[in-house]
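DATA SHEET
Item: assembly model
Revision: 1
Owner: S.N.
Input lines:
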Amino acid sequence: MKEFVLYTGCTTPVRLPAYEASVKIVLAKFGITLVDMKDANCCGAQYVESVSHTAFAAMTGRLLAIAEKMDMDILAICGACSGSMKTMKHELDNNKKLLKEVNEVLAEEGLKYTGKVEVKHLLQIFQEDIGYAAIREAIVRPYRGIRLSAHYGCHVTRPEEIVQVDDAENPKIIDKIIEIAGGTAVDYVGKTRCCGGPMLGIDAELAGKIGRDKIENIRNENVEGIITACAFCDLQLTQVQIGDDASDQDKIPVMTLPQFLGPALGVNFSSLGIELNRINPQAILQG
Amino acid sequence: MSKLDKTNEHEEHTPSSSFSREIEKEPGGADIQHCIQCGMCTASCMVASVTEKYRPRKLIQKILLGMREEVLTSELPWLCMTCRQCEERCQEDVSLAEIFHAVRNIAAREGYIPVGVQKVVDTVMEDGWMLKDGYSDFIEDDRDDLGLHTDLGWNNEFVKKIKKRFIDGGNKK
């Protein structure tokens, strides 16, 4: 049995608790236990990162150190958090001066990061720790060919040589799981492009344009739903279909990967928080 | 049209590398001089595709030319989503996300931070996380229904210490 410490990040527990619940239930089905990281702080992605690299290093370094004290590797389910922790781990593991500076602050509360901890994104757990064969075996209620498009999340797959999740230019993990669960994975123009989420704090109008561009590219393929692996992307791709500037065309349901996979594994809808989805995903669930 | 786009095309520039050397010394800025100005970044950029004001290649060019004041006081370095699509395709392995982080760090130290960014930084450095105010009773009920713990237990002591040590100190420059 494998164990990870779950770092939820800021967004998931408040804006997308159904994702957190589905991750826990679906991974438990495969014998993976998650322990919540207690007394955590924001990783500092994007905002703190933009104003002080050292402050960012200390905040993310503290998360790595907490996991090291717990003697467990970290599971991140948000692209921003997995991106920060993976890139900062890479930097701390290769920059002794920065590591020393971070550890000096951490020492004040008895923490230390030495490089032992690994950071994994959810997609890696499915591909590396569970494996496609075990997922295939666990499917009890396969989908009947429903057409779905995957959105991976920029910080989930890039920079490829550091994060080491999938092929950054041609990601396949979500697509493979869609197919294993009985769906039909459908490619679309601009699959690896950003959802626009990181632009929200700077220019909401541009963020909306970028998100809607992606939705239209997906709509052109006549799919029934979008499957995500990042809380931020999931919320953004939903919001751009609901907000004031949304088109009046039919909304395309957006679901996180574990929420999509759960029903195929026999998990009931309510424990996956399906009713909390802002765009009703019944079209997917009946497919 | 932004200030950065108003460069007089007839003016002869003598590239001054003093600003790019400054960027080189910042974390993330080391590769700036590797840029060959091919424009793959702008061609790959989603932000550039939805607004004419943002052209990442041009912005890097301004840095290479040493237009320090213009770059630091502009909103443009903050428009990069750090999606890293461009760096995945850059033949010289230049990371614009990292370079713009370096630019932003310098701009922040000199007091140029967009309001939206400052607000989030202030919140995170006070509460320890981003969404304390957004965590309503309704959401607490949803979490309870889902069998999730409702006390999120974020630590705010550490960020306060970090702010004092690395952010407030930095602004005094």
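QC remark: The mean pLDDT of chain A is 97.
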